[in-house]
From TrEMBL:
<dbReference type="Pfam" id="PF13830">
    <property type="entry name" value="DUF4192"/>
</dbReference>
<protein>
    <submittedName>
        <fullName>DUF4192 domain-containing protein</fullName>
    </submittedName>
</protein>
<dbReference type="InterPro" id="IPR025447">
    <property type="entry name" value="DUF4192"/>
</dbReference>
Length: 326
């Protein structure tokens, strides 16, 4: 969420209503952990419900403990048995590592239950209806510009390849670039031209415009080189147009050129606290190049639940581009 947004949560029902806006999509078959410091949300994590016989509680608890939240709430979305098992096991693991628990909730088939309450007067055994999508909390989130997509797959689609006429035009632009430079761009171009292409792309998107297909093809090809990639990485800030720039580039470029802009999109999203978007962008980068060094590093930071604020003076490591395993 945008850290400048203010949404007041007064009850477990309000917490359930705001969770999709914290994630950016409506979770399903998921455990969501929300950490708070005072009245502010400082950490939001989501984990798939594990298959039968698998218990990830200790690993999740270790990750959550690193966030140093004052207290955490656990929300399990999905069938009763797996959610109850995971929430109970994780609550025990969190208590063991000294994390204070606030809420333990299960959300199943449009109803919700408080799992650490056995008093039928306040926690009826039949549960309570999940808040309407038009609840005051949801309305406030939408008014403040927040979005909750119907499911995670739609978030994945937001970084997926363009199709139809856009795909054909992009393929033609890439083919023309390859024909022009044969086996690859000259080494003498990779430095200066890479920096110029990044600066030009930034200016274009900062003014609300897009690159041409030819410009996008060239930018994608230049980002294969370490000089252009590291230059772009060091210039990423918190401006909203950075997300638009790297999302558009990731979606447009042909498959061989996806890892660079996708890794940059992941970093831009991570910087502004959009963990789910960072996750799907990095998944796309690593799907096309499992050895993209910077994407691998950022992937580990996300897996450990480490926020951008917790990393001081983050710099691209030497050789931040692709490095094949021996």
């Amino acid at each position: 969420m945008n850290p400048e947004c203010t949404i007041v949560v007064r009850s477990p029902a309000d917490l359930i209503a705001v969770t999709p806006y914290l994630l950016g999509f409506h979770p399903a078959d998921s455990l969501v952990v929300i950490g708070t410091q005072g009245r502010a949300v400082t950490f939001v994590g989501r984990h798939d419900l594990p298959p039968p016989g698998v218990d990830d509680s200790d690993a999740i608890a270790t990750m959550v403990a690193r966030q140093a939240a004052q207290s955490v709430s656990l929300l399990g979305f999905g069938p009763a048995d797996p959610v109850n098992r995971l929430v109970s096991s994780l609550a025990t693991a969190l208590t063991r590592v000294g994390v204070q628990l606030r809420d333990q909730l299960r959300i199943t088939a449009g109803r919700w239950w408080t799992l650490d309450c056995a008093d039928p007067a306040c926690c009826p055994p039949e549960g309570r209806p999940v808040p309407s999508p038009h609840s005051p909390i949801a309305a406030t989130a939408v008014f403040q510009g927040q979005v909750a997509l119907p499911n995670r797959q739609q978030l994945v689609s937001q970084v997926g390849p363009v199709e139809g006429d856009e795909r054909r035009r992009m393929a033609a632009a890439t083919a023309a670039l390859n024909f022009r430079f044969g086996d690859g761009l000259p080494r003498t171009m990779m430095g200066r031209a890479g920096r110029n292409a990044v600066i030009s792309a930034e200016k274009r998107h900062a003014s609300g415009r897009s690159l041409t297909y030819d410009e996008t093809a060239l930018l994608g090809a230049l980002l294969v080189g370490r000089t252009a990639f590291d230059f772009a990485l060091n210039r990423i800030g918190d401006e909203p147009w950075q997300l638009r720039l790297w999302t558009e580039t990731t979606r447009r470029v042909e498959v061989p050129y996806v890892p660079g802009p996708a890794a940059l999109l992941g970093y831009a999203a991570w910087r502004v606290g959009l963990g789910p978007l960072a996750r799907v962008a990095l998944d796309r980068a690593l799907n096309h190049d499992p050895y993209h060094h910077f994407a691998m590093i950022l992937d580990r930071l996300l897996a450990a639940g480490i926020s951008h604020e917790a990393v001081q003076d983050f710099e691209p490591p030497a050789g931040s581009m692709r490095r094949k395993a021996a």
